[in-house]
Amino acid sequence: MSLTVPSDLLQAAESGPVDDEAFVTCVRDSLPYAWQTISRVVAELQSSDAEFADNVVPPPSESERGQLLRALASDAIRSSLERHFGVKLAFQNCHRIAAFRLSAVDSDTHRRFVSTRGQLLNQSPELRDC
């Protein structure tokens, strides 16, 4: 299961739209490693003038790797995190997460990162099982 959903949030979802911040709180509480990693990357971006910041450190265990995969593979989770942090997230493998400034989306840097060439160049034998 991706998220541990509090009963009040589940009831809210059963009766209609859910508040974005309540959903983000559920993601933060359910996927703490993913939240911490994305928060750190966003903080690095915000403290620089760069177009993007990224994480290249592999997760310490399969559990943490699973959190990153669940957070970034879900359209709902990923888009809510992007809205919350005001960035565009990009994901290349089991741990390479990048946060791009919205103004950098569709820049040469962004296009290189999300390209098929960028994906291929980011592979190595160590990452084949990730």
Q: What is the number of beta strands?
A: 3
Low-confidence stretches: none
> What is the N-to-C order of secondary-structure elements (H for helix, E for strand)?
HHHEHHEEHH
Beta percentage is 5-15%
Strand order of the largest sheet: 1-3-2
What oligomeric state do the depicted chains represent? single chain
Number of domains: 1
Can you give the mean pLDDT?
88
Descriptive notes:
The chain is mainly α and 130 residues long. It has helices at 7-15, 20-30, 32-46, 62-73, 75-85, 108-114, 116-121; strands spanning 52-55, 87-91, 97-101. The protein has a three-stranded antiparallel β-sheet with strand order 1-3-2. A hairpin with a 5-residue loop joins strand 2 (87-91) and strand 3 (97-101). Helix 2 (20-30) packs across helix 3, helix 2 (20-30) packs across helix 5 (75-85) and helix 3 packs across helix 4. The model has no long low-confidence stretch (mean pLDDT 88). It holds the Pfam family KH_NucS_shadow.
Index terms:
single chain, 130 residues, mainly alpha, 7 helices
Put the structure in a nutshell.
With 130 residues, the protein is mainly alpha-helical.
Present the secondary structure layout.
Elements: H1 7-15, H2 20-30, H3 32-46, E1 52-55, H4 62-73, H5 75-85, E2 87-91, E3 97-101, H6 108-114, H7 116-121
Antiparallel strand pairs: 1-3, 2-3
